[in-house]
Write a structure and sequence with these properties.
InterPro entries: Peptidase_S8/S53_dom, Peptidase_S8/S53_dom_sf, Peptidase_S8_Asp-AS, Peptidase_S8_subtilisin-like, Peptidase_S8_subtilisin-rel. There is one protein chain. The chain is α/β, with parallel strands linked by helices. The protein has ten helices and ten strands. The chain has a domain of 304 residues: Rossmann fold. The strands form three sheets. The chain has a six-stranded parallel beta sheet with strand order 4-3-5-6-7-8, with helices on both faces. Strands 1-2 form a two-stranded antiparallel sheet. Strands 9-10 form a two-stranded antiparallel sheet.
């Protein structure tokens, strides 16, 4: 703590830019790897003994990625220049203030190699960079929907969306997400930053909506509570690569659900690599069933199913499911989740296995004949008794007959009336392309590493005020 205080006291802040310069590190703990506290919290070194994400492609829909950053050399997928129609080059980060897309890519696939180079959650996976058209990597919801479809068709196994709009799930994004899910893609999105509700596309059914946790495992103060929250991942004081145009030593520290989303996308890539035969539904099921419960017991609006546990997701036995557990009615808070194959939420007290199938069929036919015979006998006896005791035809004294043959009793034949408040089915709310962006609370900035010999070093960056663009902001 003393070393940290001394280092911070020497920091010179660039007011308004959110970028912080720092002196030389006091020890190895102040290197890039030394500041990656979340790597150790998630036991990623042990997870890398099982898999590093080889064979998996993660699409990062963001501001673009600086392909020249040393931490990302050779880590990008797709043909250079390939992009959705109307989109800019994905291998250039358009966010000149924070380098948001570069940071997200580095968190997922940073190649590592030494203590001053970012180690990603899935360093042997590849990132497919897709740049949004706004001047700083912002966009409108129709563009995001188009990019989800393009990433799906381009072969993405996971789509990471550290972006969002404070609005209900838009029909275009809903349809794009459904398209991706049918193509076996896992989608991960940020809940927001200090807003009132979970943002779109994180609030779209089937998407893993991610909240952020602190170093101590608590919920970060800027996370957004809501019934759509699925999982939580580390998001406080996360060091990540940035273009040298943002910070000359190539690294910055920031906090947000954006960072948590990228980290969880990396864990999803590890699972897809470890279990290549699992479909998207079962990858999601594995992530939520192995999560560490946090907050109130069971699924809750803050942590969802819990905090992601990378090692458990790679090792623990998890029964398979037939469908996406996030699309089942049981995925709502307070309700049971989809029952997995081979398991029942409630089963019979005794199970009987039959080997002689022919014998059991004959026995079943005989039993059925006995039951039918008994029923016929009971009907015949009842009719004979009614004939002997049938009352005279006509009304009882002092009482008039109501209706007669062919007339329904009172109340029949009236159309059903819906309860108050119900109306004709309506469509989805209209898309909003001018959603307000959420500010991110300033975060404390730990020291950063200096440039290593011949390569990028470290820098710092707390959360910044929101940027105004064409629509949904990055989630800080």
């Amino acid at each position: 703590m003393l070393r940290f205080a001394v280092a911070v006291s020497m920091i010179g802040a660039v007011v308004g830019s959110g970028v912080v310069g720092v002196p030389a590190p006091a020890s190895a703990a102040d290197t890039v790897r030394g500041l990656q506290w979340y790597i150790d919290a998630l036991q990623i070194p042990r997870a890398h003994e099982i898999t590093k994400g080889r064979g998996v492609t993660i699409a990062v829909i963001d501001s673009g990625v600086d392909a020249t950053h040393p931490a990302l050399a050779g880590q990008l997928a797709g043909r250079p220049g390939a992009a959705p129609a109307g989109s800019p080059q994905g291998r250039i980060d358009r966010d000149t203030k924070e380098g948001h897309g570069t940071s997200m890519a580095g968190l997922i696939v940073g190649r590592g190699g030494d203590r001053n180079r970012q180690l990603g959650i899935a360093p042997e996976a590849k990132v497919l960079p897709i740049a949004l058209s706004g001047s700083e990597g912002n966009a409108y919801d129709g563009e995001v929907a188009r990019d989800i479809r393009w990433a799906t068709d381009a072969g993405a196994d996971v789509i990471s969306l550290s972006i969002g709009f404070e609005q209900p799930a838009n029909v275009r994004i809903v349809e794009a997400v459904q398209y991706a899910l049918t193509k076996n893609v896992v989608l991960v999105a940020a809940t927001g930053a200090g807003g009132r509700t979970v943002n779109s596309p994180a609030n779209t059914p089937g998407v893993i909506a991610v909240n952020a946790t602190t170093r101590s495992g608590g919920l970060a103060r800027y996370s957004v509570a809501g019934p759509e929250v699925v999982l939580a991942a580390p998001g406080d004081d996360i060091i990540a690569p940035v273009p040298t145009a943002v910070q000359d030593n190539g690294y910055a520290v920031a906090s947000g659900t954006s960072q948590a989303t990228a980290i969880l996308a990396g864990v999803a890539a590890l699972v897809r690599s470890r279990y290549p035969d699992l479909d998207a539904a079962n990858v999601i099921n594995r992530l939520i069933r192995t999560a560490r419960d946090a907050g109130v017991p069971g699924r809750d609006p803050e942590f969802g199913f819990g905090a992601v546990d990378a090692l458990a997701a790679l090792q623990r036995p998890v029964p398979a499911v037939d469908g996406n557990p996030l699309l089942a009615a049981g995925a709502l808070p307070g309700e049971a989740t989809t029952a997995p194959k081979g398991e029942q939420t409630e089963g019979p007290a005794v199970a009987i296995k039959v080997k002689n199938k022919t014998g059991i069929v004959v026995a079943g036919v005989l039993c059925l004949a006995v039951v039918i015979g008994a029923a016929v006998l009971a009907v015949v006896v009842a009719r004979r008794r009614r004939r002997r005791t049938a009352p005279p035809v006509g009304p009882e004294p002092g009482r008039a007959l109501v209706g007669g043959p062919g007339f329904p009793p009172p109340g029949y034949g009236h159309p059903a009336v819906p309860p108050p408040g119900y109306g004709p089915p309506g469509g989805s709310p209209p898309p909003r392309s001018d959603s307000a962006q959420h500010p991110h609370p300033p975060q404390p900035s730990p020291p950063f590493p200096p440039p290593a010999s011949g390569q990028a070093g470290g820098s710092g960056q707390p959360g910044t005020a929101p940027r105004q663009g064409l629509g949904g902001p990055h989630q800080r």
